[in-house]
Amino acid sequence: MLEAIGQFGCALPPPTRYEMGETYLKKEVDRTTNLLKPYKEEWKTNGCTIMTDAWSDRKIRSIMNLCVNSKLGTIFLSSTESSDEAHMSEHIYEYVEACIKEVGPENVVQIVTDNASNNMGAAKLLNEKRPTIVWTSYATHTITLMLEGIAMLPRYQKVITKAKALTVFIYAHHKTLAMMRNFTKKRDIVRPGVTRFASAFLTLQSLADKKAQLKQMFTSDEWEKCKFSKTVKGKSAYNTVLNTSFWTGVALCLKVFAPLVKFLRMVDADWKPSMGFIYSEIKSAEEEIKNALGNNKKDYQPVLDIISKKMRNRLDTKLHLTAYLLNPFYLYNNSEILDDINVSNVIVDLVGTIYPEDHNLQNHIVTVELPV
Length: 372
Hints:
It contains 18 helices and five strands. By secondary structure, it is α/β, with parallel strands linked by helices. The chain folds into three domains: 92 residues, 2-Layer Sandwich (Nucleotidyltransferase, domain 5), CATH 3.30.420.60; 168 residues, no CATH class; 43 residues, no CATH class. The chain has a five-stranded mixed β-sheet. The termini are far apart.
C-alpha cells in the first residue's frame, strides 16, 4: 500500500471521513464475515466449543471474552466490560447463553471455563436450561491446581521455599548474579513456564542441572571475598547449596511433579486435541508418582488424594471418558476398555444427554454403532 501511494505521488487524495467510516468499514466487515463462513459451516458439521476468558485491564476493569473453537481453529466472538457484575454466576450464564443462541444451540458441544466458583455456579444454571451442553473446566487450570496443592504438602513446600529463597538472593544483587552467571557460563537459573507453577518447576530443574557449579561458586575464594557472604541471607544460601538433604529434596520434587508437568504441557499445546488423552494420562501420572515414591502408600496417598479431589467432576466427566473410549490410541492397544463398567455406563449417560428424547437413536448408538 505504501509503495502504491509513493508511486502516485504527494497529490494522492486521502479517503474522506465518510468513506473510512462507512464505505471501507462496511467492505472490511463483509470481508471478515466471508472469512468466517467456513468456520460456521464446520460448527454445523462437527460442533464447536465456546471458551470464556475473564481478565482485568490496566484500569482494573473486568473484561470477559468469548471465543469459539472448532476443528478449523479458534475465532473471537465477543467481549464485554462489566466490572460491577463480572463475578456473578448469573451474569456469566446470561452472557454465555447469548453466545449459544448466536452460534446455534444445536452446534455447541461444550462450554470451557476455569474452575472459579462463579463459573461453577454458571455451569449449574446452564445445565438446568440446556442439559445437552456440557460445561467443562480448563484442563490447564485444573492440573495447575493439582500441582499447587501438592506443593503445599510440608515435605515439598520446605524444599520449594528454600529454592525460592536461594534464587531470590542470587538475583537480588548484581554481584551475586554476575558471579552465578560466571560459574554457570552465562546460563540463568530462573526459567519462564506456561504457568506460575511450571516456572517454579523449571527453576527447580535448572537448579538441579547447575548443582555442581553452584557448589563451586559458594566454596570459591570469590564468594569468601563477597560482602554478601557475611549477611544472614548469604549464610542461609550457603547452607542451602551445601546441604545434601536439600538436593535430595529437589530430586524428589522433580520426580513427583514431572509426570503432571509433562501432562500440563500436553494439554496446553495446540498441536492436537487433548481431551481423548486426559483420563489415561492422569492415571499414568499417578502410577509414575507411585513409583517415584517407592510405592510407599504413606508417601504417595496424600499426593493422589489431591489429584483425585481436583480431578473430580472436572477431568473425569462423561465427555472425557467417552473421548477416552473412542480414542483408537487406547482402544486398539487394550480392548478391555470396553469391559470397564464405569466407562461403558458413561457412554450410555452421554448418549442420553445428547439425544434425550430419541430413545431409538440412543439404543442404536449403544447396541449397534459402539460395538462397530
